[in-house]
Amino acid sequence: MAGLLLPLLGGAGNLTSVTNCMTRLRVTVLDPPAVRRAELRALPGVLGVVEDGAALQIVLGPGAVAKVAPELARHLEPVSGRAPAEPDTARALAERGAALRAERKARNATPVKEFLRRIAQVFVPLIPALIGCGVVAGLAGLLVNLHRMPALATALAACASGFMFLIAVFVGHNTAKEFGGTPVLGGAVAAVTVFPGVERVTAFGERLAPGQGGVLGALAAALLATRVERWCRRRVPEALDVLVTPAVTVLVAGLVTLYGLMYAAGVAAAAIGRFADRLLADGGAAAGFVLGGLFLPLVMLGLHQALIPVHATLIQQQGYTVLLPILAMAGAGQVGAALAVYARLPRNASVRRTIRSALPAGLLGIGEPLIYGVSLPLGRPFVTACAGGAFGGGFVGLLAQLGDKVGSTAIGPSGWALFPLLKGSRGLGTTAAVYGAGLLVGYAAGFVITYAFGLSRRSLAELNAGLNTEPNAGLNAEPNTELNTERSG
Prior knowledge:
The protein is an alpha+beta fold. Helices cover about 65% and strands about 5% of the residues. The chain is built from 20 helices and eight strands. It has helices at about 1-10, 35-40, 65-75, 90-110, 110-125, 125-145, 150-165, 165-180, 185-190, 215-235, 240-300, 310-320, 325, 330-345, 350-365, 370-380, 380-400, 430-455, 455-465, 480-489, and strands spanning about 15-20, 25-30, 50, 55-60, 200-205, 205, 405-410, 420-425. A hairpin with a 3-residue loop joins β1 and β2. The protein is globular.
């Protein structure tokens, strides 16, 4: 796969960085027009492509992306004398589409959206550890509830809690790295927030507590450290830079963190907890309906990772986040919509093959393969999938309003993969039953609404004509994707 992707991305000399998240290969290129977009989307195994200027996100699905990324990264060495690609109609259309998307993105690229994308990049590398520690914490809790093997339960709790205790350091490290500072200095300043000795410091008439403000405090501390460091780099003579800049960065940012940021972040974190409680207590069904319905567009834009600080704050405060199970209903609506499309297109081998390959990931809460491979290119099914997620979220929100709150002890998985991480206001059995019923509501609503309204008569006639039989044909074509992205946006 890496060998097939390389020429379509303009060759090794066109690559400047290669990273990956759970489902997407994230590539930055020197010359965006050199990317052969139409052929890239048509490549078997590529479930979708999201562009943001010189940055491309190629959706490959879980498992595959983790193997492809390191292989492609091996070709990052610069090469000389790249021969220009021969012009053809498909490439001309791809370049025109790229220009239109770039123009649209330039109009919509607000500072707030750019900041949220960068915040998301701080937390994406932490997701594997969050998942692993969450699963281990769930096993420890299960042993405690069953009153079995208390010694092992204690050891498992220690394994799961170590990372969460020091998560501020990792957040500070990644924040400085993302925003142009020295990563270890960002981690050093963020470590101030979890140092046990801060309990002897008084700010605004109150004693500080280790970890006060959670990841929000660590994020703010590292951002400040980055600003201070960059200010020093511009003004301190080179001969003194190695000594003065780190000392001033830790001193200034550390003191401001102790006597301002930790207190403010603590207030903000407490407000987030109160808001989440009131949101479900006062408007559970309505809030769940809105959250479940709007989450898929966030996933489509790659902005859903910006919610990680909120989830992490709730987990630190309450032991679980009540928002994640509601948002997970969006994936259920997507699965139901895909099944409806599968049923409505019995003679379209291409679409049905794509659905069969992407459905297992969808059941485990990985929505991108179904979004970019099925619903978004077809247009209407993306909207009806959102409606299915809204009904599932409304159901879970309603039961939370009635007292059966469902939460997750970690961030990352959803769908059926979330069951080992569930925790709620009632017993484990009740919590799992509520969440499972919500998934079934999302599946059913997404299926029924998509079956009835997801495909027009004209679309059904065209897609069932029996002509679309090649893998990825039609669904990943550049003009169709662009058109339907505009409709969904």
